[in-house]
Amino acid sequence: MAAAAAAAAVGGPQPPQPELPAPGLSLDKAATAAHLKAALSRPDNRAGAEELQALLERVLSAERPLTAAADGEEAAAAGGGGGPGAAEEEALEWCKCLLAGGGGYDEFCAAVRAYDPAALCGLVWTANFVAYRCRTCGISPCMSLCAECFHQGDHTGHDFNMFRSQAGGACDCGDSNVMRESGFCKRHQIKSSSNIPCVPKDLLMMSEFVLPRFIFCLIQYLREGYNEPAADVPSEKDLNKVLQLLEPQISFLEDLTKMGGAMRSVLTQVLTNQQNYKDLTSGLGENACAKKSHEKYLIALKSSGLTYPEDKLVYGVQEPSAGTSTLAVQGFAGAAGTFGQLDSSDEEDQDGSQGLGKRKRVKLSGSTKDQSIMDVLKHKSFLEELLFWTIKYEFPQKMVTFLLNMLPDQEYKVAFTKTFVQHYAFIMKTLKKSHESDTMSNRIVHISVQLFSNEELARQVTEECQLLDIMVTVLLYMMESCLIKSELQDEENSLHVVVNCGEALLKNNTYWPLVSDFINILSHQSVAKRFLEDHGLLVTWMNFVSFFQGMNLNKRELNEHVEFESQTYYAAFAAELEACAQPMWGLLSHCKVRETQEYTRNVVRYCLEALQDWFDAINFVDEPAPNQVTFHLPLHRYYAMFLSKAVKCQELDLDSVLPDQEMLMKLMIHPLQIQASLAEIHSNMWVRNGLQIKGQAMTYVQSHFCNSMIDPDIYLLQVCASRLDPDYFISSVFERFKVVDLLTMASQHQNTVLDAEHERSMLEGALTFLVILLSLRLHLGMSDDEILRAEMVAQLCMNDRTHSSLLDLIPENPNPKSGIIPGSYSFESVLSAVADFKAPVFEPGGSMQQGMYTPKAEVWDQEFDPVMVILRTVYRRDVQSAMDRYTAFLKQSGKFPGNPWPPYKKRTPLHPSYKGLMRLLHCKTLHIVLFTLLYKILMDHQNLSEHVLCMVLYLIELGLENSAEEESDEEASVCGPERCHDSWFPGSNLVSNMRHFINYVRVRVPETAPEVKRDSLASTSSDSLSSLQSSRRPKVLQRENSGTAQVFSLVAERRKKFQEIINRSSSEANQVVRPKTSSKWSAPGSAPQLTTAILEIKESILSLLIKLHHKLSGKQNSYYPPWLDDIEILIQPEIPKYNHGDGITAVERILLKAALQSRMNKRIIEEICRKVTPPVPPKKITAAEKKTLDKEERRQKARERQQKLLAEFASRQKSFMETAMDVDSPENDIPMEITTAEPQVSEAVYDCVICGQSGPSSEDRPTGLVVLLQASSVLGQCRDNIEPKKLPITEEEQIYPWDTYAAVHDVRLSLLQRYFKDSSCLLAVSIGWEGGVYVQTCGHTLHIDCHKSYMESLRNDQVLQGFSVDKGEFTCPLCRQFANSVLPCYPGSNVESNLWQRPSNKSIQDLIKEVEELQGRPGAFPSETNLSKEMESVMKDIKNTTQKKYRDYSKTPGSPDNDFLFMYSVARTNLELELIHRGGNLCSGGASTAGKRSCLNQLFHVLALHMRLYSIDSEYNPWRKLTQLVEEVNSQQGNEEQQPEVPILYHDVTSLLLIQILMMPQPLRKDHFTCIVKVLFTLLYTQALVALSVKCNEEDRSAWKHMGALKKNTCDAEKSYEVLLSFVISELSKGKLYHEEGTQECAMVSPIAWSPESMEKYLQDFCLPFLRITSLLQHHLFGEDLPSCQEEEEFSVLSSCLGLLPTFYQTEHPFISASCLDWPVPAFDIISQWCFEINSFTERHAEQGKALLIQESRWKLPHLLQLPENYNTIFQYYHRKTCSVCTKVPKDPAVCLVCGTFVCLKGLCCKQQSYCECVLHSQNCGAGTGIFLLINASVIIIIRGHRFCLWGSVYLDAHGEEDRDLRRGKPLYICKERYKVLEQQWISHTFDHINKRWGPHYNGL
């Protein structure tokens, strides 16, 4: 069928189809199928079978060569252009019909499904699918579940996480090999095959006949389509074309697998049946087409470098019957056949690319490969050939899914696994050549992880198919293609080869699929045991590991900085970790018990052999080559880790697995070299190698690597140290660290191998290394829990850590089965024991913290271990950070006030096998070094630091703690000092050596040294004391001068001893003279400037310590032995006072311990203290020290200067704040009471933050406020319903915006515009609920000309800013707050405003007239001054801030009414927003929320200036309608020809207020303001009455009407709401307003019964919004403070504050709102005039008339949507939700938190005019501000205009941490505080100020 399809597509010759029914007649197909089925069901079914075969031949014919598809003309001729043709679909139709045997295909599917016995889920998924992993339920670490099975199962309290699949996978639910049954979901718990009925034979009978042909057809198609690429570059295009054509067929197969177990078992039969395969594919028939296809198959095999064995014998090994691998033993030990040049898959090696380093690749001849594994393939079934083509086509996703979908069938699973193993070598070759190795790797692992995670299956394949042999061989073969010659040690003659880390194979990690399979199978005990027992395999594996030994060699650059920093070290570290260390951990996890000793012996044996071979290959004797280091010694590490395991778990005797001394000496050299190099790198000796060498040093100790790198290295050194001669070891250490020359008593020396500036840090490095070596117990006796605790304490001491970073930083055992799983119980219990949880807090700056763990106090007190901290720090600053935190703890807890030294910590006892390590502390060499260093520190020699002293004391203390048994012969050893002349110390015990006095020392010093001048003996014999390397120079020193102690000849003796062991004559050793690195000194030998001096010392270690105590404390005789006062001290030595402290404490502690250890020492200490200490010689201050002293003084002075500056700055700031206050509230200067006094003329003064000058703002040099203008739709988000809107998380819960403030206002405006005159409508409302312009300032001012030059300089600044200068954006020069404009300050003096506020006694009528006159004056624009220009430009800025659609509401575009409306609405927006910031009411009173930072005053000036340009015709000025009775005649006349004006009762009173005030000349007088407010209040009150009357029903109305009518004639009638209400009702009853009720009535009428109280409350609520805005406005214009009050009295307080309440008003009786009324004209007249307008409108439109009267007064404050508690509910709904435009699931779905809209982030489908959807939505929903929750990342992103920033997450896990990108996949819960902070920033418009990391989004979000 495939062919037929292609024929149609390509236009090749159609196969003749005479008997076929026409394609349209599907009935005939069904009939044919039914007929055939019947024929086949008969007992004798040969005829039926033949007929079916013939039919299938025709339908599925593969006659046409597919190559035609490549030829353009033919394809074009077909017109189909290669699309799937009709014949192809026809063939599929036929197959479906035949399978169903005449019935319907869908019914057939359903029938088969009924017989599905599968108890496994087996759902296969591809990359990026969201799956779950539960560690509690998993047996294999790779276990995974699909979301459905996970949510159906019960995993509460389990350690699970959600993850995005990287390579694809399959659901393991129901598979008890991989997971515990308790975790199965409900569907897969019950099903077992017992209750499934047996499949009726005839149901699947047709399938058994049809499917073999179908699959064969597919295979033919694959053969046809594959063209061996010419230039060894598979043309992916062609392959993909073929695969596209095959899509329907493979999908059809995939659908079959989904029909369940019954169909899968049929498919298994078909795929694995060898006879079928033979019959169909042998190519022997007369069918030419089949022959051709077979030939293509053979060609493909051959070109893959595979032989097709005709001869079965060659292949015998591969037959399962052949049993276990004989080949392994023969083939691997020696070389399997001389297989010198690798043919076949190596053509790509000769393409001339020599890898990065231009180094020749090395070919191994006779390499350890076995031909049958690498090069033989024989296919015996469809399954095998299908897999072959799957690999050839580089694992097409569809094929992979089909092959995996079959896995629930057990029989198939075994067959497929064997087939996969058989093709393993071929997979590797294809992978190496592939261009898409990443995708291919993922697909390979997708398959292999399903097969190899199952222990039973892995074991079976290992036994029957030599899985281990194959894997190891394939890995070895793979690495052999990229070997180069090693340059370590002996560059010329080295025979060692290593992998080249620059090759693509390593750089791109191409090897990881194979390695990960290997690690996977080694995690099964049965498989690992076979590996550990098989000597041949171990040899091969060590061979493989040795390829990595010494890779990525670093050579120290001595002259130039390296030109090109190679980054190969990433590849090297990854390779060692993945290819060497992880398999090692896998093997180690099976060597846990005593019975496994044999395995360890095997590994250790072959490891040592490999190491010996390696030393031979690199020609290593005893000296490492200088200036080179490799961090990669996997063989050493294998050896070390198996040793450690042997002693710790298997009770092996350590000595039985250790080599001889010579081998140990060699073993220690390279790890020691690494330790020394670390110190060199940190001393900046490798700077010329670039940053990457630092990167290597850091990676080496980093948490993921340290337990496979530095820990084994240090352990190996500890083992060597415990078995080698301690003097040899110590001298080797100092020699490696190049500080031997420094260890001289002389005050000056020459160092032949080190520059002076590096000496100090190298000495510190050497001592620190010794301390670590001697005090680390990780492998020397600590239990796993102790290790975990120590690691955790070290990490917590450096910094507080989040839970996840702790998990990441604790070096877990890399093999998941090893027991220490992070997150396992021991982790949590240890964590709770050592740390306290600090919940996430919010800092006022808005930076969000995560939940942190911080060490408990007792941990600081007892467990803080500086050694562990030093070992684990990647950055040196972390050590400092730990010490600072420790210091802070001691200060806080009052344990120690000063600067403490690192505390000395007691260690876990050593395992007996390693006791020898402590001999290092008791060897003369170390004691000499300690003595020398103490002496040098006491004498203030250069290059010594406190750190050195600290380490010296630490070592002495370690020695005292670990000393041998008490000395028995104490008294005997005191025979006077003269007995011990010939050498330094008598014995090797530190306790007795401490008291030994040393009198004279002979030293070699430069002639310039001070010792020479004083010394008469200067010309006596020479002594090469200044160097540990004396073994390298011919010995000048003879025995005759043994009168003085001579230190380092001793070391020379030691070295000689070991030279003898290695059997090399000393003459040879002397030839290994190291070339001098330092150019400062002349060549060795010619050193005339060295001369000898004899120093008189007369000190012992004890006396030096006591003098040090004096020196440190700065007092003579400061040390007094404590036991003289309190003898108890010697009995209970653990005294807490000595636990923490500085050097003085340390010295006291040591002296006490020394005294405890021996009575002798105690006596000597007392003696020394008794002698009056001679004064310390006056120090000659050297130049260097003078420098440091000067430095100190200079620092002190600098500090003082800084203090002074800061103080000055603070006072300036204070004065600035005060002047800034003047700007906004001028009346502060002159309190109201003394207005009668002579006013002082003072103008507002501003400070310019750029030039620093102060002065008033003037017309020609105006000052401005730094402001940020932004469009805002926050106001429009107020809603009227009480309960908050929730984010929709089901299809039903959608959010409609009809109930928002913005929507209601829109509806109102469009209603008005429908019926009334446009210009009048635009005065009756405000806009700006959406896209209103909000102005905010930081309060700083600057000259506008200064600002311009500041902007100019920003423009020229090349630094990348987070804002766009071209758009006028900048940051305030003083406080760095984001801004984009400058608002000019109106010049004006404070006096003025003061006069304006005097209360006048004019009547309200006079004031009304004045107001009208003032409004009538046209506002001429002031003359062309700088100020007016700036005012104009800022007005332009304000307009441009928002989009045009939010400014233009008029029907006639460009009408001036638009601008007018826009301008007063800006004022409205800012007032309303300020009200919201205050919480929606003014109860709190006080100044503006932002302190003195309001700019409304200045804003009003600018707006008023522009509003006055538009004078309103006095005819239309609403002021008239409010204050005068108009004759009705003229209101009637114009009605006919044009739309009427908006009735005054429909006007928005607050808008009227702003219009009236902005039309007045500024500055405004207070009495005018009050007058306007009073007049408007009468209108507002009337509106409230009208609304109230509309709201209630007919009976209430008539009742009120009568009630009020009775009181109408009382004196206070105009101020009684009952009277007024009854009048309103009677007036409006004249019109139709109340008539047309009936149906509508129930909707409008509120069901409450109105009581006088509820009516009063309604009226007050109706008026409150107006009163609040008015009070705010009064506060800003006149600077009066707002009084604070309770909520219930807000109305009365505000009305009296506004002057509406008469002052004599008594507040005893309940307050009545109507008492605030002050009618300018008789109330009843004006009311009836207003009602008349309404009536004339409702004549025609009663409905709309009523709707416009009712206004909702109580709006809720704006809120973001309410989010669900658990993030999973959001994620599960949205991450699969499809995009409304393209109906695909978006890659980055997001949801708007303001309105709940679902958007695609960066989605191209939703792009409109180059704007992506999120940016568009942010403009439509928030006028440029968008808040989106990114579903797949759990983070919130803010879009503000053209910039965006990641805000953070409001969902945190149980440990208070974010999980960005859901990497950890732990359950997340809403953090309400964070959400509140987000909402607060949104409402207060402070995103720009608080979030710092903004970037441009280029409309691409």
Low-pLDDT ranges: 1-26, 62-84, 310-359, 365-369, 815-823, 966-982, 1013-1051, 1063-1088, 1175-1181, 1217-1241, 1389-1396, 1529-1537, ...
Overall geometry: flat
Derived structural class = alpha+beta
N/C terminus separation: 47 Å
How would you sum up the major sheet? 6 strands, antiparallel
Number of helices: 73
| Total count of strands | 28
The averaged pLDDT comes out at 78
Calculate Rg over CA atoms: 46 Å
Helix content: 40-55%
Spatial order of strands in the largest sheet: 22-21-23-24-25-28
Topology:
Blueprint: H1 2-10, H2 26-41, H3 46-59, H4 72-78, H5 86-100, H6 105-113, E1 124-125, E2 130-134, E3 145-146, H7 147-152, E4 160-164, E5 169-170, H8 186-190, H9 201-225, H10 236-257, H11 261-272, H12 274-281, H13 288-303, H14 327-333, H15 371-375, H16 382-392, H17 397-405, H18 410-422, H19 424-433, H20 437-452, H21 455-465, H22 467-480, E6 483-485, E7 497-499, H23 504-507, H24 512-522, H25 525-533, H26 535-546, E8 554-555, H27 568-588, H28 597-617, E9 628-629, H29 634-648, H30 661-682, H31 691-701, H32 710-723, H33 726-736, H34 756-775, H35 784-798, H36 803-809, H37 825-834, E10 835-838, E11 852-855, H38 857-863, H39 866-872, H40 876-893, H41 924-938, H42 946-961, H43 990-993, E12 998-1006, H44 1010-1014, H45 1048-1061, H46 1066-1071, E13 1090-1099, H47 1101-1113, H48 1143-1157, H49 1159-1170, H50 1183-1224, E14 1246-1247, E15 1254-1255, E16 1263-1272, H51 1301-1315, H52 1318-1324, E17 1332-1343, H53 1344-1356, E18 1370-1371, E19 1378-1379, E20 1381-1384, H54 1390-1396, H55 1404-1416, H56 1426-1441, H57 1456-1477, H58 1496-1507, H59 1518-1523, H60 1528-1533, ...
Antiparallel strand pairs: 1-5, 2-3, 2-4, 6-7, 8-9, 10-11, 12-13, 14-15, 16-17, 16-20, 18-19, 21-22, 21-23, 23-24, 24-25, 25-28, 26-27
